[in-house]
Amino acid sequence: MLNLRLMLMVALLSPLAMTAGCTAEAEAWQRVGADAFAEAIEAEAGAFLLDTRTQAEWEQDGHIVNATLIPYDELEDRESELPEDKDTTILLYCRSGNRSQKAAQTLLDLGYTDVRDLESGIMGWKNAGYSVEYGA
User: Fold this and answer.
1) Rounded CA separation 64/67 (Å)
2) Which candidate, 69, 67, 75, 70, places its Cα nearest to that of 41?
3) pTM, rounded to two decimals
4) Which of 13, 27, 44, 49 is deepest in the core (most CB within 10 A)?
């Protein structure tokens, strides 16, 4: 009787164990340093560069060339401004790397599959010697 119960438990739990790893991978994004972020901008011509800060921060602290500004808390409302293809690489950043983590999770929730977050934010980007532009 004990063996029958054990076999039944294994049979019921095996499918859950197999899908658990797949789900965890699909729900993760990559956090990368400034050098890897710069390489991705250069190497992935079709990537969507997303600044998740506020308009005031965009103007005061500058932004990475060719970035699109959509504050992290407006992503769902402004989904139409994001790439239509959910497999498009999205490279995102904020000021210091905190809000972009929330934005990365929102993008995953919206169905995007290749999301990379600048771990140090725009401040770390500038501290690493990379340039920004000011204005629109």
Assistant:
1) 6
2) 67
3) 0.79
4) 49
User: How many whole angstroms separate alpha carbon 95 and alpha carbon 98?
Assistant: 8
| Cα–Cα nearest to 90, from 110, 74, 60 | 110
Distance CA 21, CA 112 (A): 18
Tell me the backbone φ, ψ of residue 113, rounded to 5 degrees.
-110, -15
Name residues whose C-beta falls within 8 Å of residue 83's C-beta, 6 or more positions apart in sequence. Answer: 48, 90, 112
Query: How many angstroms from the chain centroid is the CA of residue 20?
Result: 21
Distance (Å, whole) CA 62 – CA 64: 7
Contact 46, 88 (CB under 8 A): yes
Angle, CA 26 vertex, CA 20 and CA 31 arms, to 5°? 120
Within the chain, residue ranges assigned H as helices are: 2-26, 34-43, 55-61, 99-109, 121-127
31-43 pLDDT, tens per residue? 999 999 999 999 9
Domains of the chain: 29-127 (3.40.250.10)
